[in-house]
């Protein structure tokens, strides 16, 4: 980021969206800090970070479009689908749910670590309108990026302390999501396999 400035931020954030384990919290708060000691300004960092976020999200959206409904249906109908006790109706229900609630899901998931990246894939599978997807993604990431860049700029050289708190938020979120996934698997197992 020191060497490549705005372009470095754009690239790092795009990669962070494609590979979620890279923490945007660190990149954005450090970007905010850099506005206090380099020629970069806050809105430049926010703009390039948002463009990077949208580019990364579009890549994952394209992955979802490539997977598409039909390919998932074939996969579920195959050996692995039978082993996991999945049915073709499960995909239909998931796509129907996303069609009804996809807009708010795409927007609000931009504030949740890991999920903010991965939500682009089901949006692609459900064939969400690309323009709508880009608008919602831009709006959500713009808010997220603005908050974190301003926090980094406000705390200045103490930006790492903010990153530590945000890292704790990320870890807590991952634990909660892990618990939800385990709970879902237990309920699914009880309903589908034990009946």
Describe the structure.
With 195 residues, this protein is mainly α. It has one domain (5-192). 81% of the residues lie in helices and 0% in strands. It has 9 helices and no strands. α1 packs antiparallel against α2 (24-34), α1 packs parallel to α3 (42-77) and α2 crosses α8. The mean pLDDT is 78.
Task: Please write out the topology.
Elements: H1 5-18, H2 24-34, H3 42-77, H4 79-83, H5 88-108, H6 115-118, H7 120-125, H8 130-155, H9 159-192
Helix pairs in contact: 1-2, 1-3, 2-8, 2-9, 3-5, 3-8, 5-8
Biggest sheet details: none
Overall pLDDT metric: 78
> What fraction, in percent, of the residue positions are helical?
over 70%
DSSP helical segment count: 9
- Radius of gyration based on Cα positions: 19 Å
Summarize the structure.
With about 200 residues, the chain is an all-alpha fold. About 80% of the residues lie in helices and about 0% in strands.
Provide tags for this entry.
195 residues, mainly alpha
């Amino acid at each position: 980021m020191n060497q490549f400035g705005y372009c470095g931020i754009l690239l790092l954030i795009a990669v962070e969206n494609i590979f979620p384990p890279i923490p945007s919290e660190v990149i954005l708060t450090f970007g905010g800090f850099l506005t206090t000691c380099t020629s970069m300004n806050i809105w430049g960092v926010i703009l390039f970070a948002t463009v990077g976020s949208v580019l990364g999200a579009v890549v994952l959206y394209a992955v979802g479009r490539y997977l598409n409904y039909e390919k998932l249906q074939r996969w579920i109908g195959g050996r692995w689908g039978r082993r996991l006790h999945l049915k073709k109706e499960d995909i239909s229900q998931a796509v129907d749910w996303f069609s009804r609630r996809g807009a708010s899901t795409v927007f609000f998931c931009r504030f949740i670590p890991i999920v903010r990246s991965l939500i682009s894939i089901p949006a692609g599978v459900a064939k969400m309108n690309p323009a709508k997807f880009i608008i919602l993604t831009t709006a959500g990431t713009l808010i997220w990026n603005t908050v974190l860049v301003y926090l980094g700029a406000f705390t200045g050289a103490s930006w790492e302390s903010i990153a530590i708190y945000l890292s704790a938020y990320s870890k807590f979120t991952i634990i909660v999501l892990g618990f939800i996934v385990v709970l879902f698997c237990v309920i699914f197992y009880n309903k589908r396999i034990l009946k």
